[in-house]
Amino acid sequence: MLTLTAQPALLRTVRAAPADLGDALTGAIFGLIAATSSSGAEPAGPPFARYLSRGDAADPTMVVEAGLPVVAPPTGALPDDVVAGELPAGEAVALVFVGPHERLGEAHAALDGWLAAHRRDAAGPRWEVFLTNPVTTPDPEQQRTKVFVPLREVAP
């Protein structure tokens, strides 16, 4: 477990079918990088994806917030589809997954197992931080992604 401090970020929400999510996130992240220069924001780390909805059988569309942490909230104007926000402060559990993004479900399953074993609940949406750049680390087996689950406080 770890304790996180709030992290300002630029955010852009994407809606996509699971098969199209990778391309949608890539486009959103490039848009966030461009928004840093136009808004006066300075990047503070690698991009992330926070899962707001994973879809269901009736509608498999996923709703994901692409994000880019910034040193401080932007001082300039943001594009219409980008908002200033933050990743939450508080207790969390995290793990680093090494492998292709298509297998990130393994990391989420491991975290679900940890939550069950420790009788804890998520305090909100989980997120993935993309630690490696697929351009400089093109081998999918070498991709590193850190997955976070914010934790609800335990009742005394």
Highlighted features:
eight-stranded antiparallel β-sheet, globular, 21% helix, alpha+beta, Multidrug-efflux Transporter 1 Regulator Bmrr, Chain A, single chain
Alpha plus pi helix count: 2
Order of helices and strands: EEHEEEEHEE
Helix content range:
10-25%
**What percentage of the residues does DSSP assign to strands (E)?**
25-35%
Describe the structure.
The chain is built from two helices and eight strands; from the N terminus they run ββαββββαββ. With 156 residues, it is an alpha+beta fold. It has a single domain, classed as Regulatory factor, effector binding domain (Multidrug-efflux Transporter 1 Regulator Bmrr, Chain A), CATH 3.20.80.10. A hairpin with an 8-residue loop joins strand 3 and strand 4.
Layout of strands and helices, then pairs:
Blueprint: E1 2-4, E2 7-16, H1 21-39, E3 48-53, E4 62-69, E5 83-87, E6 90-98, H2 105-117, E7 127-130, E8 144-150
Antiparallel strand pairs: 1-6, 2-4, 2-5, 3-4, 3-7, 6-8, 7-8
In short:
The protein is an alpha+beta fold. Helix content is 21%, strand content 33%. The two termini are 18 Å apart.
